[in-house]
Structure formats: C-alpha cells, structure tokens
Write a structure and sequence with these properties.
By secondary structure, this protein is mainly alpha-helical. Helices cover 57% and strands 8% of the residues. The protein is elongated, with a radius of gyration of 19 Å.
Length: 177
C-alpha cells in the first residue's frame, strides 16, 4: 500500500518517467523506503493495468524511448483512498502518508491521525499490561512500549501543529490541472 501511495503521490506533482521517480526517491527518501527500481517499474505496470496511471512512450532525439507516466482520475481516487488509510492505520507502513498530509484539509488530517493515535494508544496499553519477564522477552516488550510511547507523543505534536493552522488547505501536493 505505501509504495503505491508514494508513486501516486509523486505523480500528482506532474507526469514523469520511471527513472525520474526512482531518482527522486533515492536522493530524497531512501532512508524512508526501500523501493527498488525494478519494484517501482513493476508497480507502475500494475497501476497502469488498474487504470491508475497512463503511460506514453516518447523519444528525444536518438535516445531510447522513455515511458512517461501520468496520474489518471482513477489514480487520484486511489491516492485519496490509500492516503486516508495510511494516515488512520496503526500498522507500520513507514509513514508514507505523512509526505502527502497537506493533500487533505487540516481538520480531516487531524481526525485521521487521531484514529491512528487511538489505535497506537491501545497497543501501548496492551504492551504496558504485559507480564514482567526475567529474560530477553522483557527487552522486546520494553522496546515496543518505548516505540509506541514515542509514536503517540509525536502524533500529539503533529495534531497540535495541524490544529494551530485550521485554515490550511491542500495546496503543495495538489495535482496540476
């Protein structure tokens, strides 16, 4: 889900070829995702088959042809659905949806993040209620508890930041028309 969201979100910024997409990810987001070039192309092909992107081959001079990918209206709908799922889910998807947070109104983004926070807080409560162990199991439980506590605190900060700017609207990642 997060890889498709990332590619669709990047394509919202404008048509581009696969190499440019992968190059941007490698230069800017390599520490956030492990999306390999072959995987990116395979996903673009799958998304094309679903009607989420269109592709057109273009040739510049004597160079080999390049496939230029564009987001379709169905791709925009898929992006919106994946974004909302990513922001509200407590599972670890790498947080890719956060890169496109400003594609939503601040109040909706807050609501989705509050859903995520509630689910993480429930996981934290479960971890904190786990019995104590005298083995490495306790390190595992302590690690989960620490990670969840940090994630909940960080979400509190993000939600407060969004609430401080309620008039913010989707602008930066808005698809060019």
């Amino acid at each position: 889900m997060s890889r498709e969201l990332l590619l669709l979100g990047l394509l919202r910024q404008g048509a581009t070829h696969g190499y440019q997409l992968h190059d941007f990810i490698e230069r800017n987001l390599a520490f956030c995702t492990n999306l390999k070039k072959a995987t990116a192309y395979a996903l673009l092909d799958k998304m094309q088959a679903k009607g989420w992107v269109s592709a057109q081959e273009v040739r510049e001079g004597m160079r080999p042809p390049k496939r230029i990918y564009r987001l379709t209206p169905a791709g925009e709908a898929a992006f919106q659905q994946l974004l909302r799922r990513s922001l509200s889910a407590a599972d670890d998807d790498g947080g890719i949806g956060l890169a496109f947070l400003d594609a939503l109104p601040a109040d909706e983004a807050c609501q989705l993040l509050m859903q995520r926070r509630a689910a993480l807080a429930q996981q934290l409560a479960t971890a904190q209620a786990a019995p104590q162990h005298q083995s490495g199991y306790q390190l595992l439980i302590d690690h989960q508890t620490y990670r969840l506590r940090c994630e909940v605190a960080w979400l509190d900060e993000v939600i407060a930041r969004l609430r401080a700017q309620p008039g913010r609207r989707a602008a930066r990642h808005k698809k060019a028309r």
